[in-house]
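Recall the central idea of this unit: under ordinary conditions, the amino acid sequence of a chain determines the structure it adopts. In this exercise we apply that idea directly, starting from the sequence alone.
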Amino acid sequence: MTQNDAAPLTGTPARDSLFIPRGSVTAEIKFYTPPSDNSKPFNYPYGTDPPEGQPRRNFGDVDIPVEIKDIRGREHLFNLDDNAFKALEIDSSTKTDFASEDSIKRNYYPEVEQLLVKNVPGAKRVLPFDYTVRPSNGDRPPVLRAHIDQNRKAASGRVHHFLPDEAEDLLKDRVRIINVWRPLNGPVRSSPLAFADSKTVGNDALIDVEHRYADRTGETLSLAHRNEQWYYWSGINNNERLLLQIFDSEKESRLPHSAFVDPRTPVNAPERESIEVRSLVFG
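Accordingly, the structure predicted from this sequence is:
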């Protein structure tokens, strides 16, 4: 994801900074457009510099206004198998210093494991393997481009990478990648997260993109616009969690997602801070 995908400051200055936008809204999301030379699309992610003379990515995007519906008040209508997302409210959260990698892995990872085992039907084992913190200082700004973090090839590669001795046996059973997303300074007032109902996303709209790191090449998916249905969860708070299903080896249930600029957000609203933890879920 590039700095050009970062959410800019925008909004309605007449509104109080504590105003929480709610309800359906029409807003722009960036969708995939192919490389001009029809070559395989690639991207050098945050923290990886492309070779001299090569662009950070060779494909483009187009801003398209879409209706984004609010799931607030009807969270129970959506599930991982059908829609590839699930909204949860939890009673408490482990004390974690989200500026500390050690604290996140020692305190928050176990909470994520327990949350997924409890709330994902069939889950027998959970392995958190990665996380992204998006602080308000702009080091990792919200991404304004419709994408899915891993495709099938990348998901299989994650299993082989983290559990090499067990990978072949594990891949014979159901394997999922599920992200647990939460704000750190909720309720969210700016750069909310939008997600497209998996049932409305056809495979023809998903494009494999090489994610080129210095030491390896992974693969993600970008989304070309069709007629998918977009949702968000207005004012998501610190005691709420969004489960985003990125991959499912058994069902074609996978979730394109993107931050978006809500035109109702006041210009002086606090910038969104959040963390997403990515986990392999077996069973």
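Residues 179 and 229 are 20 Å apart (CA to CA).
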